[in-house]
Amino acid sequence: MSLGILCSGQGAQGSGMLDGLRVEPAAQAVLDGAAAALGWDPRVVAAGPEAEMRRNAVAQPLLCAVQAATWAALRPRLPPVRAVAGYSLGELSAYHVADALDLGDLLALAQKRAQAMDRADPEPGGLLAVRGLDRPRLEMLCREHDADIAIDNGPDRLVVGGRRTALAAIERAVLALGAAITPLAVDVASHTRRMAPAAAEFGPMLAAGGLRAPAVPVLAGIDGSAVFTRERAVSALTRQMTETVAWAACLDGLREMGCRVLLEIGPGDALARMARDRLPDLVVRAVSEFRSPAGAAAWVERQVG
Question: Which stretch is the leader sequence (predicted)?
Fold first, then answer.
């Protein structure tokens, strides 16, 4: 059975996310390199106030550093990977997992992406998860309140992005219709037209940077199709800043590519839970569900055989 890797997005970062990496020399070497590249140590930030690690300018490079460190601990222990998919910001880390971005390039791009997004809209924005409302009805509410569908996790599992005033109005309307809402710990309107200035700034940086063709396919967040070339990678990573992330299509794409075992590298297990719900015929776990990367790798070996 083939292995697929899931790279998490923002939201699950917390004080315990590096606990399993403390005795992993390869992970610590990556974190040392990240500290030198960023000018601040991810281990120190991860031990500090959660409000700081949720700030967009910190969260994006922090999460990429944590995922790169986790991958360094996992990679020698895992069988070959068939495909990689990343959720929102996680799509950038997916290219590191697919050997298309070195650590320095990954972190530099994560910093530049966050900075461009913070500059993109002068008004505060955010994301709101909505469950129990179909996409056509939610799109109607978005048109009425000047917001966008940011992420499609399934038929009635959607994320809306927009300015906070718009999200407040949509929240009232959604609750009146009997659906459930969860505000997400993101302070920009990711994957919406509000990020058009950020995409215009970030796209040329991607094109001029060290991004290579992935050694294994990465699924494009915008449509779930497999990316094999550098040109397509630049396009997909740029477009996902302003277009809806089709995460349900990414999960379906992993199955279509033959992945029968999925491992989320974290932090958290949100993607693993979504994958188990959507793809009950696959076996899915998250690294955070184990005491160590070694335990996660041993589980993968047992499943893949």
Answer: none
How far apart CA 2 and CA 23 sit, in angstroms, is 28
Residue 234 contacts by C-beta under 8 Å, 6 or more apart in sequence? 203, 206, 207, 211
Cα 199 from Cα 117, distance rounded (Å)? 8
Residue that has been written with the tokens 């009425």 in this structure: 144
Instruction: Report the distance separating Cα 127 and Cα 130, nearest Å.
Output: 10
Superfamily of structural domain 125-183? Malonyl-CoA ACP transacylase, ACP-binding (3.30.70.250)
Each domain of the chain, given as residue ranges in start order, spans 2-119+193-304, 125-183
Whole-angstrom distance, CA of residue 236 vs CA of residue 250? 13
On whether the CB atoms of residues 70 and 265 are closer than 8 A, the answer is: yes
Residues 178-196: pLDDT tens digits?
A: 999 999 988 999 999 999 9
Q: What is the DSSP letter of 189?
A: -
In what helix (H) or strand (E) does residue 207 lie, and over which residues does it extend? Answer: helix 196-208
Q: Find the length of the chain.
A: 305
Q: What share of the chain is helix, strand, coil (3-state, %, to 5)?
A: 50, 15, 30
Q: Which two tokens stand for residue 292?
A: 């160590």
How many CA atoms lie within 13 Å of 25's alpha carbon, on the beta-carbon side? 1
Condensed to tens digits (0 to 9), the pLDDT of residues 33-60 reads 999 999 999 999 999 998 898 899 999 9
| Class of the CATH domain delimited by 2-119+193-304 | alpha beta
What DSSP letter does each residue of 58-96 carry, written as one string? HHHHHHHHHHHHHHHHHGGGSPPEEEEEE-TTHHHHHHH
Rounded to whole angstroms, the Cα distance separating 243 from 295 reads 37
Model confidence over 239-254: pLDDT tens digits? 999 999 999 999 999 9
Cα separation, 219 vs 81, in Å, equals 13
